[in-house]
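Working notes for the structural subgroup meeting. M.R. asked for a predicted model of this chain before we commit to crystallization trials. I am recording the input and output together here so anyone reviewing the notebook later can reproduce the run.

Input as submitted:
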Amino acid sequence: MRFMNKQVFRVGFSLLMVFSLALGTLVQPAVALTTEQKLVSEVWRIVNRTYLDETFNHQNWAAVRQKVLEKPLTDSNASYTAIGTMLKSLDDPFTRFLDPEQYRSLQVNTSGELTGVGLQIALNPETGKLEVVAPIAGSPADKAGIRPRDRILKIEGVSTENLTLDEAATRMRGPSGSLVTLVIERDKETEREIRLTRDRIALNPVVSELRVSTEGTPIGYLRLTQFNANASTELAHAISSLEKKGAAAYILDLRNNPGGLLQSGIEIARLWLDSGTIVYTVNRQGIQGSFEALGPSLTNDPLVILVNQGTASASEILAGALQDNGRAQLVGETTFGKGLIQSLFELSDGSGLAVTIAKYETPQHRDINKLGIKPDKVISQDPINREQIGTQADLQYQAAVELLLKNSVMAGKAY
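Returned structure, recorded in token form:
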């Protein structure tokens, strides 16, 4: 009996040893990730946690990471390439990686100055081509006649086909006085080469002026060129000044305004609204939240907003908020149609990551991404130069003035 127990013990012990050895071949000790692999995993986790599309462009996001990490990553450039490959699978030009230099450049205070050609650019999500959203007023690009929706085919002889948004922007920046050559394509026109001299570009976002119509109506004209950190404060000062000067109606010119900070657009909407929803933000779980007017507004005088194809992002949030709340009428052309919100993340090595985390809807729950906002009064016009803005040559401005005067008469107001 003892002999049998010993035999059973020996057999059991042998089986246990065999099982342990087999298990040991299956469960390997955890291998420490390299610095390069950690950076790739860091990016993957951020996208996994925050990206708007929970299907990750209808793919297995975990499998994407596994495939990328299968290849050896020998240095930071290899990890940057791997990250770029991983993000490209999302088919979202706005979700992008920024190397340390690009990240620092993006963080430059937008209320100061930049040195370059003065173009706001975007990758068309349908064609993948590099497009002009709008030239900055008074910039070398503006003076050269570059227009919204122009496609940039080459920068200094380098095709933009495989460049990221930030790589293209970096190639167009440079010391003041230096030259850069762009090849531009425009609908119904042959491509052409444009040589620009880089310059320091002041980013003063607000232009204001009191104008008097032929009927004697004092109209406050406001042009907003971008939504930077100081835009709402500067616009508030301008409105208060025009009120003191006797403005009885307003034209807010958002043409060729490519947007900027979401919060700036919300704050500016609050300058015009006593109450009401400004915008809804929607993440992959659904409506994340909304931003409301806080009241009181700085003025209740009639307002018309000028928009065109270069009116994008935060500009569309503002235009949609004031249109849906019945606070303003829109005149011009259908806007650009960028309704996505990105958040910027700083990574462990000083690089950065821009991720599409949400989309926005207007107060009436319009999703304008790729669709834009249609004006109340559609007025198309050939491109005009900066000196022609607000003159007889500016058909959209003239239509806005007529609309304000018509509304004033219907409201029984006299000036």
